[in-house]
What does this fold into?
Amino acid sequence: MAKKKISSNKNHENQGETRRDFIVLAASATAAIGGVSAMWPFVDSLNPAADVLALSSTEVNISSIESGQSITVMWRGKPVFVRRRTKKEIEEARSVPLIELPDPQADAERIKPGHDEWLVLVGVCTHLGCVPIGYKGDYDGWFCPCHGSHYDTSGRIRKGPAPKNLAIPGYEFIGKDVIKIG
Amino acid sequence: MNDSSEKSAPKKSGGIIKWIDERLPIFTFMKHQGEFRAPRNLSYMWSLGSIAGIALVIQIVTGIFLAMHYTPHASMAFDSVERIMRDVPYGWLLRYTHAVGASMFFAAIYIHILRGLYYGSYKSPREILWFIGVIIFLTMMATAFMGYVLPWGQMSFWGATVITNLFSAIPVWGENIVQWLWGGFSVENPTLNRFFSLHYLLPFIICGLVFLHLWALHTHGSNNPTGIEPKTKKDTIPLHPYYTIKDFVGFGFFFILMFYFVFFNPNYLGHPDNYIPANPMLTPEHIVPEWYFLPFYAMLRAIPSKLGGVLVMFSSIFVLFVLPWLDTHRTKSGSYRPIFKWFFWLFVANGLLLGWLGGKPAEGAFVIMARFATAYYFLYFIAVLPWLSRKEVATKTPKSISDSLEKVKIDG
It folds into this structure.
């Protein structure tokens, strides 16, 4: 390569590769890489901004929720369901063989140890993002009105087009009656 | 400015026109456009292109003025639209014309596309013309979708949520892509801002694509109802005045239909839920897109898998890109293809059925019907057309465009 360049140094009227060809190629390649790289700030500017990312956690007082009731709170612009399950509902969730589930996960993995009653879920259908309606559907959990997904009393997908169980947000019990989501 | 020498092209050129034309030959260009010769037998089915063009102009003009009153912020958008409706002089007219105009634009485009499908307008040498048309259609869909989000009503919000979530079906990166589209963790103010920006931009992209569409069109000229290319000058007539006049008649009919809706039934094509402000905590019982997306929505819901449904929906448009290689029958026009006709009209009926199903709840018999209809939609392209290309015997085509018209005269 180097030898070629030297040999074609003096004869720019030559038909073969010249140093000018090399410079044109190198400059074009640099400009192309630069041009593509310059797109990144534009693309990245569409990602969630710092203020959106900094959205704080939400604390919820759950003392007023009776067994068999559920409340909906807002976290990061999305609804979060906090549901106090009845004994029957817990039983229903635990009696299902995992093999029958489209997205197998045991009920125990979806709650905090020692808080069997409490189910905390992101209230966004894993199909196309609608908000499912509580205490509806074939499995006493949730039913999504948009495209007909049924969730059970552990928020797991049982029937319909949704591929996954309702998501569990990061949360912790920070007192007897208070949970902190996020 | 003297007008003594008369060398250059435009005939009636006065001093000023000639002076300009020598420096920028815009009048010569217009004269060439007017003298452009089109097949003499074009039916009103060939008016839909110019009708779509005027619809685009109406959308841009009304849109520019609406944007002067609209506020693209999640907490103010809904109210600013209501202000346009109640307080801005003729604001109601601008908005209804824009909303109904979008529907009419799609109506014109659908007939325009079906015209192309029936008369084989996608066949050689017009494949690239056809591709640009499909790209225009896709861009229109994106523009219409983002425009529908701007009033920030319940349907706006949940329509945006459902459609952007389609991309979460993409394996591995789906979730990140959706957050990138939203600029957040759900559809929120950043989403509204970027949709407004793009909704304003895309129509001008469409204008550029229309220019390419017309360029490709003028390279080989229009197809025509016989599908036979013009052979002699007898087969063609100048665009102006013959087809400009015919297009104006088409505009008249188009405007009558459009302004019937604008003045007498402006919300008929919309959905009442969009007059409820967006509520991220509550999904409406029944989400439906605007009528012009219903067939595709039906296909999405017909497939019992998230990724599968999304792929089928996008494929329903992308299959149009391979159409010139699926239908290779030598006879261009459907008029001379007795078996093709049946399958074509069944395809049209099937499309209407899909549209009807898209507006119904996704359950029971509706889903089963939607599956059959989706199957036929694809079979038409990937099985029926290739099969007909090999087996179908076409009826005898006339020797030329003029010849076909002579026969009509004798028969009549």
In short: Chain B touches chain A through 36 residues (CB under 8 Å).
